[in-house]
Amino acid sequence: MNNRPMLEIVSLQKRFGENLILRDINLKVARGELVFIIGPSGSGKSTMLRCCNRLEEPSEGDIILDGRNIMSGTSRDLDQMRLKVGMVFQGFHLYPHMSVLKNVTLAQRKALGRSADEANARAMDMLDRVGLAEKANAMPSELSGGQQQRVAIARSLALDPLVMLFDEPTSALDPELVGSVLAVMKDLKSKGMTMLVVSHEMEFARETADRVVFMDGGVIVEEGAPEEIFGAPKADRTRAFLSRVRR
Amino acid sequence: MQSITDQFFNLTIMAKTLPLMLSGLWMTAQLCAAVILLGLVGGLLVALANISPRAWLRIPSIVFTDIFRALPPLVLLIFIYSGLPFAGVEISPFAAVALAFLLNNSSYYAEVYRAGILSVGKGQWEAARSTGLTKAQTLSSVVLPQAIRNVLPDLLSNTVEVVKLTSLASVVSLSELLYNANMARSITYNASPLVLAALIYLVILWPVVRLVSRFQRKLAA
Ligand SMILES: Nc1ncnc2c1ncn2[C@@H]1O[C@H](COP(=O)(O)OP(=O)(O)O)[C@@H](O)[C@H]1O
Ligand SMILES: [Mg+2]
């Protein structure tokens, strides 16, 4: 296996109008690595993730996905790149007018050009993997938040992404539903998926993350193994943040 | 009492003028079909231009919808039918009516579509685009089905307005339902054909306005 990073963020800057929200972010994510991102609200975590598939357009810098710079290329290339980068949102965003199965097959059919049979088979595999095969014909509104989020994960997985981005995937969930989503993410990690996770689930990070990144004010303040960041943070800002969220 | 029945609900006269009324109804139906179908398609295109990030699409479409919603449809109709010939443009009554009401109506449909599209959350766009769907695919598979469902009562109400609007075509002597009813009235010296026309409009539109109310209540719930 080659050891080129799966995802590389190079000198990324993002401006909204006058405000410089991301200032020179550099991050390499290895194949199969789970990088866990923490930081106060407004520090730019979502913006950074969203730059990785150009849902937000970077102002400066490059995003290299598996050796290919996604900042160059046509809009067709951009669409093809996007389906290689799975994204899971805090608010799930399932398509409410389609069954669970159709949610998972839509992009397979339209963006990947898979046949109906192929897409359905793949969707059922993925739904099975997130434990929801029996809900294939349900509508999203009939599912709990945790189930909806797992369908959203299956929807991304069905496209065989190289990387999965998670933006606070459990923040909108009732506490008792968080576990089922984290379990699916843990399973993904164990199967070798490369993952970038913004979350407040520190326990999950301790058990599953290869690396923890602390962001504040649009920069990466500190990064290291979970035990380093959680056990012996070097920067004052990291310590202050961690003591705040632990309380 | 007898004379009111004779003047307004004269079944013999109604029966005698029925063929004329039906041919008027047929003309009304053709007019509605043209204006509604073209309006639904044209309105959608205008709405898409309206929400486009490209100014050269957006600005003309906003001007279009503003002008044709502000202009009274009757003014527009008479201008097209009686004004344009001064510029050497002769136009049949049917074409004049269809064009005038299409301009008016597609502007209204466009506003309804636009509200519908904006009612669909940004998250739906982002979820779809992040799975590699193009803008057009996202619109047609994800956004528009939800948008249309959200504004179905308004689309229907607007359609009711179109049907009512077509009765204005009588002023350019297009033989639609109201024009023929009025002609029947003058031939028979009896108001029953007008009552019959009113009843026909009611029978057709009442169920639709009921449906609109039902939808509105369901969407509000
Ligand atoms: N579309 C936008 N337009 C303007 N400012 C934005 C936009 N999105 C985010 N921001 C600003 O960027 C900063 C970082 O936001 P975000 O990346 O969402 O932070 P986090 O996810 O860490 O809470 C915030 O100050 C936010 O107000
Ligand atoms: Mg965020």
What share of residues are in beta strands of chain B? under 5%
CATH fold-type name of chain B: MetI-like fold
Beta fraction of chain A: 15-25%
Name the biggest interface.
Answer: A-B, 26 and 18 residues
Text of the CATH class of chain B: Mainly Alpha
- Structural class of the secondary structure composition of chain B? mainly alpha
- Provide the residue-averaged pLDDT of chain A: 95
Question: Which terms summarize this structure?
Answer:
heterodimer; A: 247 residues; alpha/beta; 38% helix; B: 221 residues; mainly alpha; MetI-like fold; 10 helices; binds adenosine-5'-diphosphate; binds magnesium ion
Brief sketch in words of this structure:
The complex is a heterodimer of chains A (247) and B (221). With 247 residues, chain A is α/β, with parallel strands linked by helices.
Describe this structure in words.
The complex is a heterodimer of chains A (247) and B (221). Chain A is of the alpha/beta class and 247 residues long. Chain A has nine helices and ten strands. Chain A has helices at 45-51, 75-82, 100-110, 116-129, 145-157, 175-190, 202-208, 226-231, 236-246; strands at residues 7-16, 19-29, 34-38, 60-65, 68-69, 85-88, 163-167, 194-198, 211-216, 219-224. Chain A has a six-stranded mixed sheet, with helices on both faces. A four-stranded antiparallel sheet of chain A has the order 2-1-4-5, covered by helices on one side. In chain A, helix 3 (100-110) packs parallel to helix 5. Chain B is mainly alpha-helical. Chain B is 82% helix and 0% strand. The model of chain B has no long low-confidence stretch (mean pLDDT 94). The A-B interface holds A 53, 55, 79-83, 85-87, 89, 91, 93-97, 106-107, 110-112, 152, 155-156, 159 and B 121, 123-124, 126-134, 137, 141-142, 145-146, 149. The complex binds adenosine-5'-diphosphate and magnesium ion. The site of magnesium ion has 3 residues of chain A, from helix 1. Adenosine-5'-diphosphate binds next to helix 1 of chain A.
